[in-house]
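Need tokens for this chain, all 303 residues.
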Amino acid sequence: MQEILTRAGCFVAIIIIGYILRRIGFFREEDFKVLSKIVLKITLPAAIISSFSGKEIDPSMLFLCLIGMGGGLIYMGLAYLLNRRKSEEDRAFAVLNTAGYNIGNFTLPFVQSFLGPVGVITTSLFDTGNSFICLGGAYSVASLIKKSSGGNPVKKIAQSLVKSLPFDCYIIMTILSLAHLSLPSALTSLADIIGNANAFMAMLMIGVGFQLSGDREQTGMIVRILGVRYGIALAIALGCFFLLPFQLEVRQALAILAFSPIASAAPAFTADMDGDVGLSSAVNSFSIVCSIVCIVIVLAIVL
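Here are the structure tokens for all 303 residues:
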């Protein structure tokens, strides 16, 4: 338990450091976009390659990908419905900043520490499905909502996914794992070094972007998003743990994964969509705090 609290506290501390550095002028507001590009195009893809390297996947476990994707689709649908009377920009913001899970930067280290290899494989497969949502799917849908553009929405979502470097890495590494193939050791060693920086860079990015105006509308948006998020997370966790026909370690991992924070890429995608980065970073930061509390409670119950 102490290890969980220590790691979670470190994540929060890095967010605070990023916020303080921006407040004292070390980082400027425009530096957020630079940090987000580093995360989305360098450290996150490297972390994906590193986490998959050397792992073989049983095809029967691919059902876990659907669970990871299904959770994101549920969040996107509810976010849209609950904000259907608001402006297109608010609906787009809610869809983008409610869906997706922060697995690689946050939950995976906990699973590695407490559930072992089975938990890691479960997490990787869950995150593969999740990547369809958080690394392009939610952004594509949000862009369509905001721009109200015509054309084939499925085609536009597919194009956005293909252009997402982290998503491409997930697909390639999943195929290689199923085919029992591996990348050259020199490449995986490089990915290990770069990927180790991903958690730090993602949390620092969130801290640099954190900003609240303090008005009631922002507070209400945060409360609505997190209320939907963790209410559904509780239902998903209970369903996965008590109803699915998997071994105990898999069900334990799924119960933990359900309470993962909102995807750390959401603020970066919000910036790319010219949305409210400060509010997005605030939602993301508060979701991390909520997830710390929830995951600690889940670990105490299921282990």
